[in-house]
Amino acid sequence: MEFFDKLGKKASEAYKVTADKTGKIAKETKLKFKIGELKTQINDIYEEIGKKVYEKHIREEDICIKKDLEEQCTKIDVLSDEIDSLLKECLTLKDKKQCPNCYKEIEKEDKFCPNCGEEQTQDSAKEVEVLEELENTEVEEDNSVEKQIVKEELQQDIENKKDKQEKDDKQEEEEEKSNLEKTVEIESNVKLGEEEED
User: Fold this and answer.
1) Which of 5, 82, 141, 178 has CA atoms 20 to 30 A from the CA of 88?
2) Per-residue confidence (pLDDT) for residue 110, from 0 to 100
3) Are both 87 and 41 inside the same structural domain?
4) Which of 120, 151, 175 is the last residue of a domain?
5) Do 148 and 55 share a structural domain?
């Protein structure tokens, strides 16, 4: 009877693991499909830009990036930000990260990028784990001062990274907001221009 219980537990565990992997694969596939759609939209905008530039060339007119192409460039910025966000989600699903130097997909635990050799910064979550482990570790009285120094340095490092991450997130949010505002402004100007022509 014990054999069948063990067999049942193993089958149940295998089912859970398989279901989890299948769910992740399905979600990743949806994200990749969405990324593909966004890249197609960007390519369409590139074509539109090329067409405008060529039309200006044929008419022998000067091309003003600000006036003639700002709307398309802003749309590309917004779509590119969305693609970056989806790519990060894909990496999270696969328990991987991206090297900040060469942008290759690497394992989360890698201390150095296998592609370019860039040293990877340790995740704050891992540092918090190390800090908790350090706090729970008993040390001899002689080593208590060193333990306190290491603990303080680690806490400071965690705080610095947290502050930097918050600044980066805020800057990214402001850029996205700015891009969105530009898109709305440009689209409203285009609509006003079309209404005036009618």
Assistant:
1) 178
2) 82
3) yes
4) 120
5) no
The CA distance from 75 to 48, in Å, is 12
If one counts the domains in the chain, the total is: 2
Q: Which of 66, 17, 75, 13 is nearest to 43 (CA)?
A: 75
pLDDT score of 43: 95
* Measured torsion, CA atoms of residues 124, 156, 110, 22, in degrees rounded to the nearest 10: 0
CB contact at 8 A, 90 and 31: yes
Structural domain boundaries, residue 14: 1-120
190 burial via Cβ count (<10 Å: 0-12, 13-18, 19+): exposed
AA identity, residue 188: S
pTM of structure: 0.50
Give the Cα separation of 198 and 194 in Å (integer): 6
User: Residues 34-72: pLDDT tens digits?
Assistant: 999 999 999 999 999 888 888 888 888 887 777 778 888
pLDDT digits (tens, 9 = 90+) for 168-180: 778 877 877 787 7
Kindly state whether residues 149 and 60 are assigned to the same domain: no
C-alpha–C-alpha distance, residues 92 and 115, integer Å: 20
User: For the chain, where are the E strands, in sequence order?
Assistant: 96-98, 105-107
Residues 172 and 102 reside in one and the same domain = no
Domain boundary among 81, 98, 120: 120
